[in-house]
């Protein structure tokens, strides 16, 4: 049987100016039997003075800087709830987030992960861009992930909740995910159970200089993404092998990886057409119209081979 209650796990690193709003958004949910655990991952700003104001309402863990995965693992280790909800300290939730999440888990015992959209906001909290992810995916996603090298229109950390039984089956997040721990959660849990997507934007994702998500990537960020995707595929395959799950991921199926490589190095006309066709066939985006539009737009904006020379060299 599942444990009762909800554990909200907030990881914080140098977000003293934001973490209060994150905590308040949880306190205002109005759902009983909720514990809040905040792990401060060795902040060097004034985070801890802000967190001390909540010491009678949250469980505070202080640790040396070890990365997002270690912070989340530390929070889960001392938590007690049957549902684990993750929240980055620079984000916050809308009213009703926890009640909607809990209802989704109760509606289907086969669900291992529940998520919703997030509304991107600027540093000052004003809305920008459209809610993410654009496409929602529910049910058994493991066949799709097996064909797309694990990529899908995945949610960010602050939109994700998992069953503790699934966490216990998966084990702690590997330390390699010092950032982007959501890549582990969204890459592994679809192989452990079904996924439920809630259509509303039940949280707010703050975009600033430290973010992984941004509308346009420079060359340095493209290389970081490619390295991250490759390591994620390798980590997922290790997990699948250890747990004797027959699926395997192949980086050749990871269209965003090869698109990023083409943006760095340039393409000739033939390669441009080939990438457009691969984009049309890419299993990671289930929405046909969006997949078609993205593939054609991406292919058109790729630099020509021999132009923009030095773009990839500049970040080596």
CATH topology of the largest domain: Spore Coat Polysaccharide Biosynthesis Protein SpsA, Chain A
Helix and strand composition category: alpha/beta
Number of helices: 11
Write the H/E string, N to C. Answer: EHEHEHEEHEHEHHEHHHH
Please state the CA-atom Rg, rounded to the nearest Å: 20 Å
As a percent range, the share of helical residues equals 25-40%
Low-confidence stretches: 308-316
Looking at the overall shape, the CATH architecture of the largest domain is Alpha-Beta Complex
Please write the CATH class name of the largest domain: Alpha Beta
Spatial order of the strands forming the largest sheet: 3-2-1-4-7-6-8-5
| Number of structurally distinct domains | 2
**Rough outline:** globular
Share of residues in strands: 15-25%
Please give the alpha-carbon distance between the first and last residues: 51 Å
Largest sheet: 8 strands, mixed
Overall pLDDT level: 93
List keywords for this structure.
316 residues, alpha/beta, Spore Coat Polysaccharide Biosynthesis Protein SpsA, Chain A, 2 domains, eight-stranded mixed sheet, 11 helices, 8 strands, 39% helix
Structure write-up:
It is globular and about 65 Å long. The protein has two domains: 6-206, Spore Coat Polysaccharide Biosynthesis Protein SpsA, Chain A, CATH 3.90.550; 219-315, no CATH class. Mean pLDDT is 93; it is low at 308-316. It is of the alpha/beta class. It has an eight-stranded mixed beta sheet with strand order 3-2-1-4-7-6-8-5, sandwiched between helices. It contains eleven helices and eight strands. The N and C termini lie far apart (51 Å).
């Amino acid at each position: 049987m599942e444990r009762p209650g909800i554990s909200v796990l907030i990881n914080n690193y140098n977000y003293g100016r934001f973490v209060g709003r994150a905590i308040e958004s949880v306190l205002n949910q109005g759902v009983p039997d909720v514990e809040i655990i905040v792990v401060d991952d060795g902040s060097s700003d004034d985070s801890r003075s802000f967190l001390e104001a909540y010491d009678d309402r949250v469980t505070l863990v202080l640790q040396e800087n070890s990365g997002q995965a270690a912070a989340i693992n530390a929070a889960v280790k001392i938590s007690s709830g049957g549902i684990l909800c993750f929240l980055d300290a620079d984000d916050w939730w809308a009213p009703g987030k926890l009640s909607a999440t809990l209802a989704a888990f109760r509606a289907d015992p086969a669900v291992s992960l529940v998520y919703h959209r997030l509304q991107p906001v600027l540093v000052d909290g004003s809305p920008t861009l459209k809610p993410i992810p654009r496409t929602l995916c529910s049910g058994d996603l493991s066949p799709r992930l097996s064909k797309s090298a694990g990529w899908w229109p995945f949610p960010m950390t602050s939109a994700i909740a998992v069953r503790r039984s699934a966490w216990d089956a998966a084990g702690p997040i590997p330390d390699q995910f010092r950032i982007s721990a959501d890549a582990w959660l969204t890459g592994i849990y679809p192989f452990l159970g079904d996924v439920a997507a809630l259509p509303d934007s039940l949280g707010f994702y703050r975009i600033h200089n430290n973010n992984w998500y941004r509308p346009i990537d420079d060359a340095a960020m493209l290389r970081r993404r490619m390295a991250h995707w490759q390591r994620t595929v390798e980590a997922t395959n290790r997990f699948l092998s250890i747990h004797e799950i027959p699926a395997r991921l192949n980086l050749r199926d990871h269209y965003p990886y090869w698109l990023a490589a083409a943006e760095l190095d340039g393409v000739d006309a033939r390669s441009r057409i080939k990438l457009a066709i691969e984009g049309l066939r890419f299993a990671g985006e289930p929405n046909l119209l969006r997949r078609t539009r993205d593939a054609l737009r991406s292919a058109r904006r790729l630099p020509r081979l021999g132009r923009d020379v030095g773009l990839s060299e500049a970040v080596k």
